[in-house]
Design goal:
This protein is of the alpha/beta class and 421 residues long. The chain is built from 16 helices and eleven strands. Helix 7 runs antiparallel to helix 11. It comes from Cohnella yongneupensis. This is Erythromycin esterase family protein.
Length: 421
């Protein structure tokens, strides 16, 4: 492969990313979309969070975007949502509101960068009418037990028959003692699943918010989204035992379904900013994920909404990151080594050790056929096994834009009391 030709083609698309004027180029491209997807190459890099926050602030304040949806659990994110909207009894500051992010890995949302963004959202929302306030929601599937408890608590305040459906679902899961692995094994191998109970619960709660009193409307939505999370979690843990692509696909389909429910709640013309890992927001069809039968949020939204989706990938050449050596272990600040040769990150660094923006048009041809590694760091990370942390990607097809930060630093976690894993 002609390295000089590759470098020349990349240089033709590279723009500097230093100040607000450079940021404006990206905002101008993204502002017409209904779904702006902002990625990250790790769950533990400060700059990914601060740049997403800066872009989100402008999309909210200048272009009327209605909510942030993140790769987080509904119950804990709903606590933060209540704080940024100024509801009563939501804590004295954002750090207190972040205490519900107490299930490992806590640092993804319990960090200083999120606390600062939450304080900005709260200040922005102050004085706005309730239906004009910007929300912060989680659309992931992991909160099976927490969502069940939230539904029981909410329905316990209501005088209707829905509480019985919730109790039946709770009783079905109760023998597994909060252990997702036990439930998954039982459901997958022995057919002892709770699918019927959670489907019935969701049916009972579906769209109840449409007829709710204004002061209870969002809480009724929360009950439905918790029921959706239980349904998604049940399917996720039931399929993950097989170790194939289906559990991943269950999770990403759920996130799209939750996102579209939020769009319906916010009404005609609503627009959303989504914060998730690159592996979720970058179109899977432009990676080797497709060969393994995997799809993702970016692909599903593009297939349904076309040009109304704008996806921005993020990457870094080197720095530090928050992650852990194994699932459930304490977080650590780790070194991110220089990107491997001929990866997208190394190519961009070779052009110059500064931050860069690449903007791709639909008819982009310069980089369309280049398939190179693109770094992806998870919550479990082993820098010494760096070659395993790259997803082969046609970057101009995977994203609409790519924001490259040459040197990055680790997130600043906020201390929370971690639940047992």
């Amino acid at each position: 492969m002609d390295q000089n030709a590759i470098m020349d083609n990349v240089r033709q698309l590279v723009k500097p990313y230093k100040d607000r004027a450079d940021e404006q180029l990206l905002v101008d491209r993204a502002k017409a979309a209904n779904y702006v997807l902002l990625g990250e190459a790790s769950h533990g890099t400060s700059e990914f969070y601060t740049h997403r926050a800066a872009l989100s602030k402008r999309l909210i304040a200048e272009h009327g975007f209605k909510f942030i949806a993140v790769e987080g659990d509904w119950p804990s994110c709903y606590t933060l949502n209540r704080y940024v909207k100024g509801y009563v009894d939501t804590g004295t500051d954002a750090r207190e509101a972040l205490q519900d992010f107490n299930r490992w890995p806590t640092w993804i949302w319990a960090n200083r960068e999120i606390a600062e963004f939450a304080e900005w959202l709260r200040e922005y929302n102050a004085g706005l009418a309730e239906d004009e306030k910007v929300g912060f929601y989680g659309i992931d599937v992991y909160s099976l037990w927490e969502s069940m408890n939230e539904i029981l608590r909410y329905l316990g305040t209501k005088d209707d028959g829905d509480l019985e459906a919730a109790k039946r679902a709770f009783e079905c899961f109760e023998p597994f003692g909060g252990d997702e692995q036990r439930y998954g094994i039982s459901a997958s191998f022995y057919g002892e699943c709770c699918e019927d109970e959670v489907v019935e619960l969701l049916r009972k709660l579906q769209d109840k918010w449409k007829a709710s009193a204004p002061e209870d409307r969002e809480n009724a939505l929360s009950a439905e989204l918790n029921a959706m999370a239980i349904k998604g979690a049940e399917a996720y843990y039931r399929t993950m035992i097989r170790h194939d692509a289906e559990s991943w696909n269950v999770r990403d389909r759920h996130m799209v379904e939750a996102l579209e429910k939020l769009m319906a709640f916010h009404g005609e013309g609503a627009r959303a900013v989504v914060w998730e890992h690159n592996t979720h927001i970058g179109d899977a069809r432009a990676t080797d994920m497709a060969e393994d039968g995997m799809l993702n949020v970016g692909q599903l939204l593009r297939e349904k909404h076309g040009d109304k989706v704008y996806a921005v990938g993020f990457g870094t050449y080197e720095g530090t990151v928050i992650a852990a050596r194994a699932w459930g272990e304490p977080l650590k600040e780790m070194k991110v080594p220089p990107a491997i040769a001929n990866s997208w990150e190394e190519i961009l660094h070779r052009i110059g050790a500064d931050d860069k923006l690449l903007l791709f048009d639909k008819d982009e041809t310069l980089l369309a056929d280049y398939l190179f590694g693109h770094r992806a760091i998870g919550v479990v990370y082993h820098p010494e096994r760096e070659r395993g942390n790259y997803v082969p990607s046609r970057i101009a097809k995977r994203y609409d834009a790519f924001l490259y930060i040459d040197r990055t630093k680790a997130l600043s976690p906020v201390a929370v009391e971690v639940l047992a894993t």
